[in-house]
Amino acid sequence: MKIVVIGSNGKAGKLIVKEAVERGIDVTAIARGENKSVAKNYIQKDLFDLTREDLSGFDVVIDAFGAWTEETLPLHSTSLKKLCDLVSGTNIRLLVVGGAGSLFVNSEHTLTVSDGADFPDIFKPLANAMAKALGELRQRNDVKWTYISPAGDFQADGERTGKYILAGEELTLNSKGQSVISYSDYAIAMIDEATKGNHIQERISVVSE
């Protein structure tokens, strides 16, 4: 299996690359700047400059692209569309590092985490941008995509426990009543999904045990 991680210099991207390397998987990293991951195979290129040829030969493309500032939030949609177009009609699977704000909090799937009264206003633009990108992704029947949402409390420097609960479209709490996962445990879940590929054209979510 050959995996490529786009946005490999980000916090999530680096840990996803590390997890893949430690499992002996053939992984290539892609980012704009110099390689900050542990990947030996590296392509220095902007996501928006990638071609179909750049991604041909890979079994799985992992999209760890991130945009956080107000002016760059639309890039969540345009970057995902770009990657979908590159792998459209192929057997290449596209796995997306998603957000938690779009997880549903009711069985009717009409209310999301970001709709909650206690959801911080400062994070709503990001949550809305990522939810919009997910909605557009759901329309892509020409792509073998999987969108993986983390728990509500997504901890960059959290502990690697090696365990997680695989869930679906709804916000799921662990045995302690928490919605939390570390970036390291999320990376485990991401590579598990990359190697097993059980959720084509689905959004799944993960939370620590």
From TrEMBL:
InterPro entries: NAD(P)-bd_dom (IPR016040), NAD(P)-bd_dom_sf (IPR036291), Polyketide_Oxido-like (IPR051606). Residues 7-187 form the NAD(P)-binding domain. Pfam families: NAD_binding_10. This is NAD(P)H-binding protein. It comes from Clostridium gallinarum. The lineage of its organism: Bacteria, Bacillati, Bacillota, Clostridia, Eubacteriales.
